């Protein structure tokens, strides 16, 4: 017995793909009444079939019966049926048809649910003799049931980066995939798996998140991994459709390798009094990623440069250390300098117990014959005018800076404008050669200048000095 307000219940069944389905059934009381003439009559708009279902990609032969469309007026009259709308007279045209006499709805061709998941069109019923409509038009709904005919596909780039030596369990990236079959069914329930690289990486089968499986990933051993990812629908069942693709995992660099020297020490010779310039290149090796702070080297002279004779900098192209002489060296003061050069990166070390390294650089100063030096650049002698010739007014001598001796040095005049002075070339003694006149135009502010030259006979080198009279 159906109550006045009707009754609703559900029927569960399996489709050809073994998918569980459910359909709701609505029962209502028969609204037909028996008239005196024995005919049945029904209120208009009461013919109301449930939504019909067809399976997508159904196979031949066609056409196939779907369901009867029956109007209550067919019980009292001879009627015929027509349908129109999308899937019938509108695109996609000709999918459905109806047997005019019986009202049997038929499907005439295979349907792709991913293109048209539902059809809604109109059914109409007419009296065969009068062609008058015996009922109001009825909307017909046909739902297209999904079959698993689409494999899942990857979306987005499969390119990821993770730092070397990351802890096990560190997220590398997420694989994204989609399936255009019906949502909420196993047809679109995707499972993720790795077909390679499983000793190093792990993928969450439900979320597609790839994580590290070890903390031993070393960029300097292998900077890139190619792993094969599979996505399979039907929740990963063997009968599920699948696709595979290659994911690229690049290892990011950390500064786990300090710069190292190619030699254990360096020796370099520098001439005394040598001008500024490059005196040594120090090559460096570093396994970290080139042209990054993990590879770029900074050099420091830790010892031996207390007087500031040197500076060190980095060659930006080769990463070498460049030692420059910036202050001349004096052999007589310093014959040898022992430098200690430290090499470090711009970035701090991490993921390693290694330390920054240093190297000794032995700088030898090469002696040069510098020529004699006068005891003073300028010497002042006081002389009265009209002093007799051959009068000794003083001695202006030079010494060899290496031997501190004056032996073998010769003295000569370079400039004596009035020829008032003569020089003893062996001793450096200065004597009056001609009458000195204080009022002479050669005298400026009471001072007469004589320039002398001291020559080291053995090396033919010389220095100048000035005497003032």
From TrEMBL:
Keywords: Calcium, Cell adhesion, Cell junction, Cell membrane, Glycoprotein, Membrane, Metal-binding, Repeat, Transmembrane, Transmembrane helix. InterPro entries: Cadherin, Cadherin-like_dom, Cadherin-like_sf, Cadherin_CS. It is found in: Cell junction, Adherens junction; Cell junction, Desmosome; Cell membrane, Sarcolemma; Cell membrane. One of its GO terms (cellular component) is catenin complex. Pfam families: Cadherin. GO terms for molecular function: beta-catenin binding; cadherin binding; calcium ion binding. Coiled coil: none annotated. It comes from the Eukaryota. One of its GO terms (biological process) is neuron migration. It is a single-pass type I membrane protein. This is Desmocollin-2-like. It comes from Salvelinus namaycush.
